[in-house]
From TrEMBL:
Gene3D superfamilies: HAD superfamily/HAD-like, Putative phosphatase, domain 2
Alphabetical list of Pfam families matching this protein: Hydrolase (PF00702)
Name the record gives this protein: Haloacid dehalogenase superfamily, subfamily IA, variant 3 with third motif having DD or ED
PANTHER family documented for this protein: CBBY-LIKE PROTEIN (PTHR42896:SF2), XYLULOSE-1,5-BISPHOSPHATE (XUBP) PHOSPHATASE (PTHR42896)
Annotated InterPro entries: CbbY-like, HAD-like_sf, HAD-SF_hydro_IA, HAD_sf, PGP-like_dom2
Organism domain of life: Bacteria
GO molecular function: hydrolase activity
Amino acid sequence: MLPSAMIFDVDGTLSETEELHRQAFNEIFAAEKLPWHWDAADYRRLLDVAGGKERIAHFLAAQPEGADRAVGRIAELHAAKTARYSALIAAGAALRPGVERLIREAKAAGVRLAIATTTSLPNVEALLGASLGREAIALFEVIGAGDVVPAKKPAPDIYQYVLERLALPASACVAFEDSTNGVRAARGAGLATIVTQGMYTEGDDFAGALAVLSDLGEPDAPYRHLAGAGAGDRLVTLDALGRWLEAA
């Protein structure tokens, strides 16, 4: 049973982009002479808050210094950070192992593609353009991104938004995620969920995921099976997905 559609998260799932996001935030803080720098440990904690504007607001709420100069500028700071991130991505972006292979396989087989992410649409466009080419956005029939729904992950709203526009039931689709919040959002919408854990989500709670893997796998570098379905396979292929879904 092949899925009718595959729905992808973006940051950490399509590509290991979170370090570029962290760099962009820090460069904007420095440019604005704000007294903050997010190290990797800080950023991992902040990733529990979905959405860049929401992440800044959450951070500011705990700051004893400088917050008064920034609290009314969250949208402005986030827009500047998005522009900086787009410039960093344009300099080069690699998709995670197996992502392009599986996307191409899906398109050839008539499996529909969609995106469900809390990141902004310009960030999605920048990543796809840098990694797959200028026309890559057209590969995805529906893109749910940014503020199209008021409640961000772990709320299921973004997945429900995408499913409504695909006009497909959750049972006919599969989601790809990398984080606890992502799994909760996808499972809350009723979607079978494949996790490819990333550098900032290793060790997260992926309860309810159909499979937890290191990545989607390439012929010369198979994925590492971590939990759930997929122990007998070397790559995530459409045929493998079909078998996993049938057995679930």
